[in-house]
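Hey,
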Amino acid sequence: MKSFRELSYPYIVWACVMIGIPMILIILYAFTQSGNSVTTFTFTIENFLDFFNDSVFIQVLMQSLKIALITTVLCILIGYPAAFFVSRMEGRMKATIFLLLTMPMWINMLVRTYSWISILSDSGLINTILGYLGIGPIQLLYTDFSVSLGMVYNFLPFMIISIFNSLDKMDKGLLEASADLGANKVQTFLRVMLPLSLPGVITGITLVFLPAVSSFVIPKLLGGGQYVLIGNLIETQFISVGEWHFGSAISLVMTIIIMISMYLTKRVDKQSASDSVASGGGRIW
């Protein structure tokens, strides 16, 4: 019988090949002067200085963080009630509704995003309906609204699934005990349900914020090429401009931001877990 360590070897090799080697190449390109071969190891920080000294690039980074934050907040506001009501259902109805909420994930994200172009365009479904009502057409496509809508639509299932798992696995006896001790529904939610579901919320934030901040397909399609986020900037440097050194530097900056975000969410998750344990014996109201 093989040990667990032996069974993990293929995954370690896969991670080194698919993650480690590309990251080493990105670091080498990022710290190499443009136009030089990476084998010369002529290190420089010029690529990073070009990024941080250009106000346009900083504005793109701030815009990316803003859109990702808006997307994450909207996903929480929509996803938590949806996950709550699904978790309160029973039997086949719960399975059916959960299936309907997560079914869009079965379709390729590119196809899902393209569908919104036909819905939001000037001759699309929404403006056609508004036209019958004597309103419009309204500019919906290639705006902040369309990009945010596409982000929320594509990443919302991740938030719902994460929160649903926490709520569905919650010990219902704790909610009954809260009611027996005299707490109303609001107090039960704030003092029992919300703290116990925070791990799911934190996981959902990670699954939504990280891909949203680096997304380039959704802004490119729903932003019409006029809406540039950091993911589009990296794609342009690698594919259109061919400046791999500068593109690698931007990618490394984004990698550091993502790692910091993951560290902070992990700290918050641990803190919420410790707070729940510490207050486990306290009063509910």
